[in-house]
Amino acid sequence: MSKVLVIGCGGVANVAIRKCCQVSEVFSELCIASRTKSKCDQLAAELAGKTATKITTAQVDADKVEEVIALIKRYQPDLVMNIALPYQDLTIMDACLACGVNYMDTANYEPEDIEEPEWKAAYEKRCKEKGFSAYFDYTWQWAYREKFEKAGLTALLGCGFDPGVTQAYCAYAKKHEFDTIDTIDILDCNGGDHGYPFATNFNPEVNLREVSAPGSYWEDGHWVEIPAMSIKREYNFDQVGQKDMYLLHHEEIESLAENIPEVKRIRFFMTFGQSYLTHMKCLENVGMLSTTPIEFEGHQIVPIKFLKALLPDPASLGPRTHGKTNIGCIFTGKKDGKDKTYYIYNVCDHQECYKEVASQAISYTTGVPAMCGALMLLTGKWTQKGVHTVEEFDPDPFLDALDKYGLPRSESHDPVLVD
Ligand code: NDP
Predict the structure, then answer these.
(1) What is the whole-number distance in angstroms between the Cα of residue 88 and the centre of ligand 1?
(2) Please, how many CA atoms are within 13 Å of residue 83, restricted to the half-sphere of its CB?
């Protein structure tokens, strides 16, 4: 029996909330709070009578720490699930600390305006020290480690699929399959087709910033940075087929390098079709991905926000998306002195997700792990205090929960490796 405050009511939150309502014995009370309260009310109305979970709604601007504090004080939750945007991570963490409540999110902090001088100075220093320049990293949230430990609270970071489940797969491989892991390749394949010339599967701002950043990977104890989309491989994915995939910077590489220090190389690949890449390059070249406001006919406009308004809402892709996702990790390493390879992954069908929770698989594969992560914290399976990423916790109950609630694992002990 627990009370949970969910902040955000977009594509991912919709799935997480619907899944929480399937487990009412744990999620007995939920408050859905977001910037636009009407979206929370609409979801609450859809769920009314279909779940034993008691749902309330609230309006909150999570950029304002005092508003989040006031809401937490009013609602008195056991856990705050931040499923808004990465821009709100720090304000919500501050509010949780002020109120003595556990925290979790699905993506690491990044600033809304990357030209903001104070942030930019810290960013440039960080780039020099660490050797990668993608602007999403754990520095900001790891700075809260001592505060959460001292307060006896847990902050669970990045509990979606990637980051999230991919790190649980790494912890599982380390616990059950290997004595030492040499290499990790994280492969994120979306074989879905929504029929639009161009659309993003989750928040367009966050998604386009992620894929247009320089790529990087971890090798022999340091970062290797490459121009965006300059390393391409082909892979034949189970139940999806042959796809082109590109090496990207991805946040879990940073925490995995710290938590599994023996690993010699960690890479992250995501599949993209040629049409997506051509559209993205064009938008970038004309300045539509910029976060810097411009003056247009007497109005201040942020180009990427304007683009977001033009693109299809990711939440609307559900009914039109067909095909499957396949996301997982390929490992090489040693067990009992012998070389070994191992692949663990999940295959998820867009239309099956839509039938169950009225969403496509990208939101589903993020929202289900968010619910399962919350379940781990609320049922006392994950109790470590401080600020932690998923690979720092016991993967077994989490993977069991994912098997049960819609994202079952598949395995291969003889996978084709990525060169
Ligand atoms: P959406 O844009 O669909 O939803 C974001 C929600 O947050 C909206 O309800 C929005 O409200 C709300 N919001 C935005 N700003 C504020 C604010 N200041 N105060 C209160 N609420 C706010 O995003 P998604 O659902 O696609 O993504 C949610 C999160 O999941 C993101 O952080 C994303 O990066 C992450 N993600 C993680 C993945 C993983 O595998 N780990 C994969 C995919 C996404 P409004 O309706 O008013 O705009």
Answers:
(1) 9
(2) 32
Say which residue, 135 or 324, is predicted with more confidence: 324
Average pLDDT, integer, range 310-331? 93
165-357 CATH fold: Dihydrodipicolinate Reductase; domain 2 (3.30.360)
Query: What is the spatial distance between Cα 13 and Cα 168, in angstroms, rounded to a whole number?
Result: 21
Does residue 181 contact residue 173 with C-beta atoms inside 8 Å? yes
The pLDDT of 47-64, averaged and rounded, is 98
Question: Is the distance from CB of 124 to CB of 130 less than 8 angstroms?
Answer: no
Helix (H, G, I), strand (E, B) or coil at 160: strand
**Of 108-112, 247-251, 404-408, where does mean pLDDT reach its minimum?**
108-112
What spacing in Å lies between the alpha carbon of 182 and ligand 1's midpoint?
A: 35
Query: For residue 164, which atom of ligand 1 is closest to its CA?
Result: 41
Nearest of 342, 393, 341 to residue 369 by alpha carbon? 393
Q: ipTM score of the complex? A: 0.98
Contact 74, 68 (CB under 8 A): no
C-beta of 60 in contact with ligand 1 (< 6 A): yes
Q: Is the CB of 79 under 6 A from ligand 1?
A: no
pLDDT single digits (tens) 11-29: 999 999 999 999 999 999 9
**For residue 54, what is the DSSP state?**
E
Q: Locate 263 and state its tokens.
A: 């690993």
For Cα atoms 121, 127, 128, give the angle at the middle one, nearest 5 degrees: 95
Distances, alpha carbon 166 to alpha carbons 25, 286, 355, in Å: 27, 35, 25
Which pLDDT does position 201 carry in this prediction? Answer: 81
Q: What confidence tens digit (pLDDT) does each residue in 156-169 have?
A: 999 999 999 999 99
Cα separation of 257 and 136, whole Å?
16
Name the residue among 47, 44, 14 with its Cα closest to residue 31: 44
Ligand 1 pocket, residue 86 CB under 6 Å: yes
d(CA 174, CA 183): 12
Task: Report the nearest-CA residue for atom 3 of ligand 1.
Answer: 10
Q: pLDDT category, 153, cuts 50, 70, 90?
A: very high
* Burial class, 276, CB count within 10 angstroms (exposed 0-12 / middle 13-18 / buried 19+): middle
pLDDT tens-digit map of 67-88: 999 999 999 999 999 999 999 9
Ranges of each domain in the chain: 165-357
Cβ neighbours of 393 (radius 10 Å): 23
Q: How confident is the model at residue 236 (pLDDT cuts 50, 70, 90)?
A: very high
Closest C-alpha to 248, from 191, 186, 201: 186
